Amino acid sequence: MTTLTDGTSTLTRDALAVLQPGFTGTSAPSWLLRRLGEGLASVGLFGRNIASPDQLASLTAQLRAERDDVLVAIDEEGGDVTRLEVRTGSSFPGNHALGAVDDVALTREVAAELGRRLAACGVNLNWAPSADINSDPGNPVIGVRSFGADASLVARHTAAYVGGLQSAGVAACAKHFPGHGDTAVDSHHALPRIDAELSVLQARELAPFRAAIEAGTRAVMTAHIVVPALDPERPATLSPRILTGLLREELGYDGLIVTDGMEMQAVSGTYGIERGSVLAIAAGADAICVGGGLADDETVLRLRDALVAAVRSGELAEERLADAAARVRALAAWTASAAERDSGQGAASEPGPLSASAGRSDRAPRADVGLVAARRALTVTRAEHFVPLAGAPYVAAFTPVANFAVGDETPWGVAAELRRLLPGTETGSFARDRAGTEALAAAGPRRIVAVVRDEHRHPWMASALDTLLAARPDTIVVEMGVPQATPRGALHIATHGAARVCGRAAAEVIAGL
């Protein structure tokens, strides 16, 4: 073990290099800058760290002043899961909307424009796209984050998304390996299990990951799920059979493997984050994502020390830790070289032709491609008795509890866009018992626009709609989750996602534009 001139050991630096911690605030705390100087190579950003594009660019510049090749990662899927626009809602529809359109060129263009905006802010690793197949329509955590329920559709759009994002010099991260779509449990809260046969997994769950690997994805994120057909004992994040045997050896993947958030209850509630982190690196993971909930220096030091102690006790091979750290640094070097190429071409700050020689598209994405995609994704069903609005409506939003990945701070719905298009529009939010009766009373004589999100997963929401439609058959229904039920209402609009841009597209139809 070598001791470096700054007093740290190579072992300690490698242990820091494999961590991807978060932090609180919109500027980098002193402890984080200090750890970057000691060997930390990655930082994870969340909505709490972002106020504006200019502020984000200043923050990433602050990080790079301490370490110029730092990996700055973010969970920016577009659609329902956005960090760049956490306070307003995303300018890009999510995966399910793109899958509904089923135009791989459009998916690539959306991802390229999103990547361009990330790169302009100094972000170079995006924990996206979700390559999960939404096999279980009742899945509480994937839903509209998936391109769809068909393996071949999800595979081709995953590949297109990877290509588009990386054309902007931002590393893609296909998730959640080996597939989180056939679960009925949210791994933020407990440990899910998928009991599909191996033949089903090979043909279904693994198909999008094969496509992502073939497309050259620079990173793959693991899932905290137990898949008995692959490993009956350990969740994928901690399984040598799944990470080394399946992902590395069978699928031939040689890029970075990053874990899902280690503070999620599926791991922290069963193994603990220190023990889980050691097992994950030993299993074949290269980077430990932590910081969605735990975001302080104490956590970083606890994990660093746990990895160092595991090497010294012989539980974790020093060569395995060194290999993991080397993969982190290799990805950092790739993003740094991509940024240098783009700075020379001006592609990272202004729209313009992208270099084909660097594997980029031969034309720049359109700045309005998100709205174009959202409009194309709409499924509109008009009943024979439908009559267009004659005035400003009442918007009744039936609001379920948001899953942890989406968060409850991001606005959704059509009310804001309808108020802009139809001044005088009023709105209310309703949940659970008597929601339909309360909405009717609040709306009075106004025409009602009922906005739902995954009606099929919430019996109270379906009951509320039943009440509304029985009393007011002229009600307009907007489904902003995964559409399952037969379209109903005088006008039914399925947006395939709840992003702000999806709400705008729906509002344009309602307003008759």
Task: Tell me the layout of helices and strands.
Layout (H helix, E strand, L loop, with lengths): L9 H8 L1 E2 L9 H9 L3 E4 L7 H14 L4 E4 L20 H7 L2 H17 L4 E2 L24 H17 L5 E5 L20 H6 L3 H8 L4 E4 L17 H11 L5 E3 L6 H4 L4 H11 L4 E2 L7 H17 L4 H28 L23 H9 L1 E4 L11 E5 L16 H7 L4 E5 L4 H9 L4 E5 L6 H13 L4 E4 L11 E4 L5 H11 L3
Parallel strand pairs: 1-8, 2-3, 3-4, 5-6, 6-7, 10-11, 10-12, 12-13, 13-14
Antiparallel strand pairs: 9-14
Helix pairs in contact: 1-12, 1-13, 4-14, 5-6, 6-8, 11-12, 14-18, 15-18, 16-17
**Shape designation:** globular
Kindly, what is the distance between the CA atoms of the first and last residues, rounded to a whole number of angstroms?
68 Å
Which range does the strand content fall in?
5-15%
Rg from Cα: 23 Å
> Quaternary arrangement of the chains shown?
single chain
**Which spans have pLDDT < 50 for at least 5 consecutive residues?**
346-362
Any overview of this molecule?
With 513 residues, this protein is of the alpha/beta class. 40% of the residues lie in helices and 10% in strands. It has helices at residues 10-17, 30-38, 53-66, 95-101, 104-120, 151-167, 198-203, 207-214, 240-250, 265-268, 273-283, 297-313, 318-345, 369-377, 415-421, 435-443, 459-471, 500-510; strands spanning 19-20, 42-45, 71-74, 125-126, 173-177, 219-222, 256-258, 288-289, 379-382, 394-398, 426-430, 448-452, 476-479, 491-494. It has a 6-stranded mixed beta sheet, with helices on one face. The protein has a 3-stranded parallel beta sheet with strand order 2-3-4. A 3-stranded parallel beta sheet has the order 5-6-7. Helix 6 (151-167) packs parallel to helix 8 (207-214). It is globular, with a radius of gyration of 23 Å.
